[in-house]
Amino acid sequence: MNHHRRSIRRIRTFLLAEASAFALAALVHVGFLADGYEHHDVVVFESILGSVLLLGYLGAGVYPAWVRQTGMVAQGMALFGTVIGRFSVIADNGLWTILELVFYRLITAALIWGFIVTIMAPTSNALASMPRDVEADKARD
Questions:
Q1: 83 and 76 in contact (C-beta within 8 Å)?
Q2: What's the number of domains the chain is made of?
Q3: Would you say 72 and 112 are in contact if contact means Cβ atoms under 8 Å apart?
Q4: Is pLDDT above 50 for 17?
Q5: Can you tell me the mean pLDDT for 97-125?
Q6: Least enclosed by CB within 10 Å: which of 19, 41, 46, 79?
Q7: Given this model, what pLDDT does residue 130 score?
Q8: What is the DSSP secondary structure assignment for residue 130, as one 8-state letter?
Q9: Residue 139 domain-assigned?
Q10: DSSP code at position 65
């Protein structure tokens, strides 16, 4: 398997794992997986961020040549949303449990790591698939 296909698979894996983490967190805050953590506003927030990442995962599968751009946009938006959410909790003096503090630190680290992996991934050779101007090449030679 060539390096480009591995990087596509790695980026898509990050997007799917991050989307799944937000989906699980939303299920916890809905009260489906654990009692006592219900919070409607957080469910909406986590569902939106998880959906953005899932759309990035699906978009990267449909257009593999755009996997870097799709990954950067989806992870960038999720990272931005996570940071904004953390600041809103700080400004509102929201109560956080240890589980939530651990989750948001881990998901922030995963988003940063995934964003860095996505940025460092090799670009597809889009120029190689473009038709060449043979006469211009001959004139340069």
A1: no
A2: 1
A3: no
A4: yes
A5: 87
A6: 41
A7: 45
A8: S
A9: no
A10: G
Query: What's the pLDDT score for residue 129?
Result: 47
Q: Which domain range does residue 68 map to?
A: 3-124
Q: Is residue 140 part of a domain?
A: no
Residue 42 and residue 127 in contact, taking contact as beta carbons nearer than 8 Å: no
* Among 86, 77, 80, 82, residue whose Cα is nearest residue 54: 77
Give residue-wise pLDDT tens across range 71-95: 999 999 999 999 988 887 777 756 6
Pick the closest to residue 103 from 35, 39, 18 (CA basis).
18
What are the tens digits of pLDDT across the range 23-36? 998 998 888 777 77
Residues in the chain: 141
Q: Give 64's contacts (C-beta < 8 A, 6+ positions apart).
A: 8, 124
CA 56 – CA 71 distance, rounded (Å): 6
CA atoms of 58 and 79, how far apart (whole Å): 18
Give residue 131's pLDDT: 52
Q: Is residue 61 part of a domain?
A: yes
CB 18 within 8 A of CB 107: yes
Cα(31)–Cα(55) distance, integer angstroms: 25
Whether 43 is covered by a domain: the verdict is yes
Count Cβ atoms below 10 Å from residue 29 Cβ, excluding itself.
22
